[in-house]
Design goal:
Mean pLDDT: 91
Distance between the termini: 30 Å
Bound molecules: 6-hydroxymethylpterin-diphosphate
Largest sheet: 8 strands, parallel, barrel
Strand content: 5-15%
Helix content: 40-55%
Number of helices: 10
CATH class: Alpha Beta
CATH topology: TIM Barrel
Structural class: alpha/beta
CATH superfamily: Dihydropteroate synthase-like
Low-confidence stretches: 1-6, 286-296
Number of strands: 10
Strand order of the largest sheet: 3-4-5-6-7-8-9-10
Order of helices and strands: EEEHEHEHEHEHEHHEHHEH
Length: 296
Amino acid sequence: MKKITRADIVEWPSGRLDLSAGCLLMGVLNVTPDSFSDGGLYLDGPRACERAIEMARQGASVIDIGAESTRPGAASVPADEQIRRVTGVIESVASKTHVPVSIDTRNRRVARAALDAGAAMINDVTALQDERMCRLAAEREVPVVLMHMRGEPGTMQRNCRYDDVVAEVLNFLVERARRAESFGIHREVIFIDPGIGFGKTVEHNLALLRHIDRFVATGYRVLVGTSRKSFLGHLTGRGDPLQRLFGTAATVALCAEAGVSMVRVHDVAEMADVVKVACAIHPRFATGQSAERPLF
Ligand code: HH2
C-alpha cells in the first residue's frame, strides 16, 4: 500500500483534501443564466443544491460554485447580483455535505460573502490580481486557484498572441503564486491553472496540455479545466458542448497521468471512472508527491 505522506493531505481550518489516490475532481455548478454548457439549469436554489449533493456523491472532492459566466464574450455581472445568486446555495450545500465549496469569482466582495456563507476555497480566474483578494484568502486561510487569463472574458479571444505560450503562462503563474505566498497564503494550498480556453487558440490549449508536466514540476499543485470546452468541439467536430464527454475524458486521463492534482469537470460520475483508471495505471504519478519537488 502506498504510504500517505504529509504532502498527500491538504488541510486548512475549513476543509481537507486527500490527494493520496491521485487526481481529484472539482465539480462545476454554475448558478447563471448564460454559462456555455449548463447556463440556466441551476438558477433555482433547491435544484442547484441537489446537483451539488449529487456531484459530491458521484466523487467530487470540491464543488465549484460560480455566478458569472466567463465564456468568451461574456459580460461581467455586478457583485450584488452574484452574491444574490450564490449565497443561499452555498449555505445550503455547506450545511448538507462535508465536501468543500469553492467560490468561482474574481470579485473580492463576492468571495467574502461566499466565505461568510460557508465556502472554503477561492477560485479566481484573474489569479488574485486584486491585492485585497490576496489578503482575504490569507486572513481566512483558504486554498486558492490562480488561473491564467489574457485580459477580460469579454475581449480575451482578441488577444491570443504569445511567443512561447507554455513559458509565458508558466512564468506568470509562478510569479503570481510567489506573490500569493508573500501575502501569507501557504504554498500547500495554492493551485495553479493554465486557464484552458481563456485567451488561447486551439494550438495554445494543446501546447499547454502537452506540457502540463512542466506546471506539475514547479512543485505547486496544478488544476486544469478542459471540461466541454470549445477546443474539444473544434477537434472532434462536436458543436454541442454536451457531446464533448469523450474529448473531455481524453484530457482528464492525460492530466491525471501527468500528476495534475485536480480537474474541474461538469460530468463528475464519468470523469470519476476516468481518473480512477488513469491513476491506477500510473500510481507513481499520484500527485501528493509533486509538492515535495523543488520549485523551479
Ligand atoms: N473555466 C471556466 C470557469 N472557471 N476556473 C478555473 N480555475 N479553470 C477553468 O478552466 C475555468 C474556471 C469556464 O467553464 P464554465 O464555468 O463551465 O463556463 P462559464 O464560464 O460559461 O460559466
